[in-house]
Amino acid sequence: MSSLQYHQVTDHDAIFSDSQWDAIVLLTPTLTLENYPEISQLVNHAAHVDAGISQQTSLLLAPGLAGGRLVVAPVAKADDPYSDVRVYANAAEQGIKRALAAGAKAPLLIVNKDEQRDNEFAESVAALAAAQALWQPLEGREAGVKSANLDRLGLLSEEVDADLLNALEAGRYLARDLCGTDPERMAPPAFADYLVQQLADSGLSVSVISDEATLRADYPLLSAVSRASFAVARHCPRVVRVEYRPQGEITRTIVIAGKGVTYDTGGADLKVGGAMVGMSRDKGGAAAAAGLMKSLSILKPQGLHVIAELGLVRNSIGSDCFVPDEIITSAAGVRVRIGNTDAEGRLVLADVMTHLHKDYGDAPNVEMFSIATLTGHVVRAYGGYTAAVENQAARKLGVANDIQLRGEALGEPLEISRLRPEDFDFISATSSADDALSANNAPSSVTARGHQFPAAFLVKASGVNESMPYTHLDIAGSAVSGNPHYGTPTATPMVGLLAYLLK
Q1: Nearest to 57 by CA among 15, 32, 26
Q2: Class of the 6-164 domain?
Q3: Enzyme catalytic residues
Q4: Which of the four, 100, 102, 211, 412, has the lowest number of CB atoms within 10 Å?
Q5: What pTM was computed for the model?
Q6: Residues of the chain whose pLDDT is less than 70?
Q7: Where are the domains of the chain?
Q8: Topology of domain 176-481, per CATH?
Q9: How many beta carbons lie within 10 A of that of residue 282, not counting itself?
């Protein structure tokens, strides 16, 4: 099943019953609808009967309007000075679900914006939220569960870029499938195979490293995490590189390292007390990076060269698993003392970053990103928000600030953290036997600066020099919405990062 398709509608008459749409979904912060008199009369009449229409999503019989259905979804807290454009996303989610329950297959979304506030992208935010709400897990679709999804979604707007939205949603759809699927269906080899299949006709270059000898030699930290899984064929690691190369001159190069831990038992530092549940979502960084490449393959931006490398591993427990106190030399030649095997994602990323830096460090205007569900601390610090942690070169360029502004305008805000000298002190050598410590032996959520110092480790262990702008994006708190273990993958930070790349 393909991703939801958005259709831009500019003809006001599309709201009437003789159009191709079978329901109107109105998102509005007020019952005053000056631009839609036909709808205003119906809504205000209903409000005389039920005052709750301004407080909760309602379905009205609407003779003469498309499909005879009108869903009114109030935009709550639109005038709250601390709220943002996500109030339209919340309304869209409720409105589209109500339309679906009513039997609609082709609803037309209308966003009545609050003109007193800057909500330039409210229609786009609402449309993306509707698709997020309607996504169904890959396993369910493969099992033949009957889809209740929409055939298409209309957006009544002269401003929205439907082509951009469709490209973005195609990538987010792939990212949700990769992230939200169980640890056997999407173990490292299966993840790689599925991605190759889905990108087969994309024009992207896709390569997969599966040879054990090559992985052990070239990705030693990644292979240490995978040591207990090498004996199980279906759990063996993979490294996948996906490349978008534009036609013509390259003026800007972006390299992205994605953490793809398809299941995290914690290894020898075993996750106990129920902490292992939900760890099939520890591949959200690799999934988002893959989805971003899918979107780029559709949009085909000029001058922009993007390479994503995904480290796909299973952190298994077993007689051959790696343990704390081991010293393992990274791909960059840095001797890493293992402090905690449950801090495995940074080991995977470090080797991937080394190879990206080696291959593209001299490319035109190059920037590096890492995307990972990395720490519990970021959830403790920021709740459901992504954290961006930059090196000094990226900070001078204002990379995180730029992504923050663009992402927030499109309903995907993030927080910015700073690297400090203490973060590098934290991971410094413990003796002459090593060059860096991977982690302490306490949960990151109870460790001071628990999401900042891992970025310092990534800089140190990967050998990425300070002249390359590098931004780490920790999505542990934002990768899933709803149920913390089994909720819907969000494909974060695709929206803000794509907006940044296309600037």
Answers
A1: 26
A2: alpha beta
A3: 271, 346
A4: 211
A5: 0.96
A6: 1, 146-148
A7: 6-164, 176-481
A8: Aminopeptidase (3.40.630)
A9: 26
